[in-house]
Amino acid sequence: MTSSDLCSSDCAAPDEVPFSPYESREELAPRGRIEALVLQRLKSLGIQPARLCSDEVFLRRVYLDVIGTLPSSREARQFLQERSPDRRAKLIDRLLEREEFAEYRALKWCDLLRVKSEFPINLWPNAVQAYHRWIRDSIRSNVPYTRFVRELLTSSGSNFRVPPVNFYRAVQNRQPQTIARAVALTFMGCRAEKWSAERLNGMAAFFSQIGFKSTGEWKEEIVFFDPQKAHSGAKPLTAVFPDGKPVRLSPGRDPREVFADWLTAPGNPWLARCIANRIWYWLLGRGIVHEPDDIRPDNPPSNPELLAYLEREVIAARYDLKQIFRLILNSGVYQLSSVARSSHPQAAAQFARYPLRRLDAEVLIDALNQITGATEEYSSPIPEPFTFIPPEKRSISLADGSITSAFLEMFGRPPRDTGMESERNNQPTAAQRLHLLNSSHIQRKIERGPYLTGQTRSSRNPQAAIEELYLTILSRFPTPEERKITAEYLRTGAAGRDSALDIAWALINSAEFLYRH
Amino acid sequence: MSVQHRPLSETEMTRREALRLGLCGAAGLLLPDPQSFAPVGQVGCQTAGSAKAKAVIQIWLWGGPCHLDTFDPKPEVGADYTGPLDKAIETNVSGIRIGELLPELAKQADKYALIRSMTHGSNAHETAAYIVQTGRKPGDGQVYPGAGAVVSLFRGYEAGYKGLIPPYIVLTELQGRFSESGFLGSRARPFATGGDPGAARFVVEGISAAGISEQRQRDRRDLLHRLNTLERAHPKDPALQALAHCEEQAYDLILGDSGKVFDLTQEKDDLRARYGRNTFGQSCLLARRLIERGVVFITINYKGWDTHKQHFQIMRRKLPELDRGLASLLQDLSERGLLDSTLVWVSGEFGRTPRVQWEAPWNGGRGHYGAVFSSLVAGGGFRGGQVVGASDARGEEVKERPVHPSDLIRSIYTLAGISPEAALPHPQGLKVQVGPPTPEGVRTGGILSEIM
Hints:
heterodimer, A: mainly alpha, serine acetyltransferase, domain 1, 3 domains, three-stranded antiparallel beta sheet, globular, B: alpha/beta, eight-stranded mixed beta sheet, two-stranded antiparallel ribbon
């Protein structure tokens, strides 16, 4: 995917910016399968897609989506000055190798796997740390997704020492049906509570021989295959795969393995479809099947050919998910601008533009700290023992969904109760607005964080300082009009030295900063 | 009895009306969540018009106070149980005695009812806090919303609440042990003020900012509005319109008069002193001010009751605070004609072990105790001067008329005009009733009809 040849706005006179700083001149073209399949739909419905996005937008978007982190002003400057035609593809490759990629994906997986110490999941802090580390390391070393799933489903051992066993502990109760529902939701994207009781019970049988026992160590628990369980009737147990095929379970074999064999077999459509759809949802804000964890016959994909294509790609890549990220990120559909050119009711479901989405709670607070140089101190009086998190630790790398944080709560951090994607709430509220506009928490960061005060104080050249603020906060150069407005505010502002901080405040409170676009 | 609303200016009303008709359906822009839930408008019609309790003040004695030292004294049972607090005092209702450190509350007993037979059997903070505030037994795969989220959902914007102050306020911190809003999600989340109402200057996080003049507030807002390049490129984008509405509401609180409700200096000094010049006392006073503005549910999270050690020293400090603050609140509400329409609910997550733990390492402490404990309720349709149920001679078991938290929660909903049979909106569309059912195998006396 080549990108726009639009010059970054620092060298563009006003009449050379044809649309907005957000769009390039290029139209979506059927360069690859994804573009072709999306365009086909859009054309047949008469929907005009957005233009491709500008380099500035791409830069910020791909950082936020891939590593949950804002580019620094230096990174922004460097990329915006780069002229090689494959600069976007190279940036994607670099970001997929960053440590924050694993951290940010681990955050999302911990949402889905309900990683928290406290009520009602009650994993307990040591297990949370072990489990989070295992998830992050699996993503970092890019283990094939089938292996990741298999380890979660079939491991046995201590919750502290064999972290994936916590999958079976992070449920609200340990009934086989509850576990089956969690498995269906997490790996098949299905809400099994909508299934017939027969179908659910057939699948639950695979999870009816899981034993749990405590040890001498405080809150340690062993998860194991317990053949004694569910064999009270002495007759061999029959389980039924979600596709309706029954299987007789042999007494000596852990039925979780039988299920994992079925789920991770190359031809199994559920696993590939669910993960392909999820990755699409993570990057484009909307599933091809939407909600992404509500896959069922009467909730069809908005573009079945596109989903089928991605499914095949997942299998062809041997479940190397980074390849799927790379494929989607490089597509023109991902790189569409957010500026809509159609008000067709189907436009969103057919991906006619990149949707505006508020930053995730953790990403937002990390970005604010990155901009200002301030830090966040997390500590949790519950559960005991008290938890203290070093201040330099970033919020996207927090392991425990129970860590007390009024900010994260207010900005819609998921409670990690159900494992549903919709638990994360990125809707704006007036309380959030109050907090960002006027709280001492944020004002302190702006006034006392070392970076902004450093920038605004040391600079003898106010224009350069403004440019730096824009690159730091919005990852782009100011437009000529913005240069004018800010220069005037600096000149006439009664706030004196604080005028520059007010400009930083305004940029932090702008929709452009608060939203992925 | 009608709640005294501060009169709104005409333009304010008009704009609020416009907001109500706007994009998000309700004016509840603090909590718009159109994607995850059925339209919120479906909820409102289920509130009965005849609600006795128009608002609720929940005083949460966080950590669990001992029933023997407060509302269920047992002076006859001996020092192993009473410790040094071995006296009970008469109240202004004959036959009702309470703990000796509560003399002001003794003068207000005609206004409240004591439930001495609360029971749920859980001795773990988080589980017990969940049971007491939701009335539900944990572990069925759902996380239910607490009473505050339910009452403020049904009686807030849905019932025509138009205040700029959010309808569900927590003074001053969230509980953290469980999510108040449960599966209702962020639209039912309370607004926590932060700050300290007992401090010389009470700063409500977000509403008042220290060191920023009103002129600078206005200047920088203008600047923000001029630097709106993204908005201009995305005219009529619903996401940005929702953000703009939220901002407008936020500025109404920052620059308008509504935020003044938090300014306790507007109260007379002697009244402030009567409530007690401490965080709890001033929180009670603030709760009354919020009630006057029509706020629907106020929770005062009153910390410090988890007294495993130094129990009696702490009681000598805390009980007089509770006594003054709560007694003044009841009296003040009553004098202003607000008690009939305001339900006051005082409870911790459990009681404490009736037998004092004199042994090391406690050296005179009390542990968690969920088998029996006490709650106080007043106003909003509850009759005062009453005692419901009883514990046994040592305060260890329920003797008469067990009251499970589900009974009390259903009673509160009923008085608030919310039918326990009404449907609670559920994100996955499950059919869930508002009223928590009595858990299986629990012996209870049911809804508190004897005091309603």
